[in-house]
Each structure stands twice: as C-alpha cells, then as structure tokens.
Design goal:
The protein is mainly alpha-helical. The chain is built from 12 helices and 3 strands, in the order H-H-H-H-H-H-H-E-H-H-E-E-H-H-H.
C-alpha cells in the first residue's frame, strides 16, 4: 500500500528501474510512492550503483529486528521538542547517517555528526554522545578525533561545568572546505614532485603531472566557492575564523 513499508517486490522494481536508468521520481510514480521514500531506500542501501533488492530487503529486516531489541543499559533519547514526531526524527537521522557514509565518512563519525546536527543546541559533551548513541566512550573519542581532523566539529569548554563541548555551527562546512583545499594543494605538490622524479615525458611522470595540475585547479575552485558563499556565515563565525 502507498505509504506503507516497502515489500521485497517493491525493492525489485526499484532495482529494475535503476538498472533501466530511471530517476527516483519516475520509479516512485510507478510504485505509487513518495519520491523521498525511493531516494531514502536507495541511499540507505548502497546508492544507485550498488543497490540490490534482495540485499536491501534483508538489511531492512535486520534493522527492524535490532529496533525491537533496544539495549537495556541506556535509555532511548529522542528530541521531541517543537512537536516533532520521534519516528520521523529517527528515520531522518538514519538517512543522514547513510548519506554521510556515502560521502566517505566512517559510520561512527557519521553518527556523531548526525547526532550533533539534529540537536537544537548543536553542542554535546562526550557523555551526552555516549548516552544518545549507546556506544562506548572509546568509540566516541575516536570519532571525535576523526571529525576534528576533518574540521567538521569544534571543541569548546563549558565554563559552568568545566567539560568539553563538541559542536557544529554554520561555519563548519566552510572550515572543512578550506581544509579540503589545503589537502588538495599538498597532494598536488607531491604529484608534481613525482612527475619531476619520474620524468615528465614518461607515462608515469605524465600521469603524476596531470594529477598535480588537476588537484591544484580543483583546490583553487574550492577556495573560490568557499569565499563566494562566505557572506552566509554569521559575523561571529567569521570572527572565529580570522
């Protein structure tokens, strides 16, 4: 039924539609489903290239079984402020995690980042994250270290409780873009040095030369894009960056 859970046959039709090159909207129309249902289903199960109907159906059943057996060691925490629907919040958070994983983030850092983004304060302590995600403090510590290295979160000090707060703000992706550009420039310089060592006229040297030039130009593009949208940041965020 439209709006109900996807059946195994629905998933096979989604897989067939993807193989035929159909867009999400067309597949959803044929199934009489919302487009968001199809896009969420595909992103949660490997993306358009890796989606497999039977594997997706099996994974969904496994997730359903896990939800029926919540850990007894910690309570389930759901933000229900502003009249939010807990089930919709859970589904949205799962979708956000899946999309972040598809972009290349490991799953635990993705869960931490999604948790921070779906918290109104935008800031939580390590203890808060441990309780909300129901994982070990060591897992949180490792994820935090990774996200800080990518400049996707900030570390602040709560003066009231003398605890460290991990937060996201409107400038997070701006800082991450700048860090990404810097990594591109470093790799570009290494590739150009490789071209010099290998010999620019050799196949290996020419390949390194191309990679170096490509990364240099994309790094410059990233910087230009970041600066073009810098005006969207709050004055406070710009001051923090300076």
């Amino acid at each position: 039924m439209p709006g109900g859970r996807l059946t195994q046959q629905d998933r096979r039709e989604i897989s067939a539609g993807l193989a035929a090159g159909l867009g999400y909207a067309e597949i959803a129309r044929r199934l009489a489903r919302p487009t968001s249902t199809v896009s969420r289903e595909v992103s949660r199960n490997g993306g358009p290239q890796a989606y497999r109907a039977d594997r997706a159906h099996q994974a969904t059943e496994q997730r359903a079984r896990r939800r029926k057996q919540p850990p007894r060691s910690a309570p389930q925490i759901t933000d229900t402020a502003y009249g939010r629907d807990p089930e919709e919040m859970r589904e949205f958070t799962e979708q956000l995690v899946d999309i972040l994983v598809l972009t290349g983030l490991p799953r635990m850092p993705s869960r931490v980042l999604a948790c921070l983004y779906t918290t109104d304060a935008g800031a939580l302590t390590a203890k808060d994250l441990t309780q909300r995600l129901q994982v070990s403090p060591a897992s949180i510590s490792t994820a935090i270290a990774y996200l800080e290295e990518q400049e996707l979160i900030k570390r602040d000090r709560d003066p009231r409780w003398r605890r460290e707060l991990y937060s996201v703000d409107n400038a997070v992706w701006y800082r991450s873009f700048l860090a990404s550009a810097q990594r591109n420039f470093m790799l570009a310089e290494t590739a150009r040095n490789g071209a010099r060592i290998l010999g620019a006229t050799t196949p290996a040297g020419a390949r390194c030369e191309f990679v170096g030039e490509f990364l240099r130009r994309t790094g410059e593009d990233i910087l230009q894009t970041a600066e073009r949208w810098r005006h969207l940041l709050t004055p406070q965020a710009r001051d923090n960056r300076a």
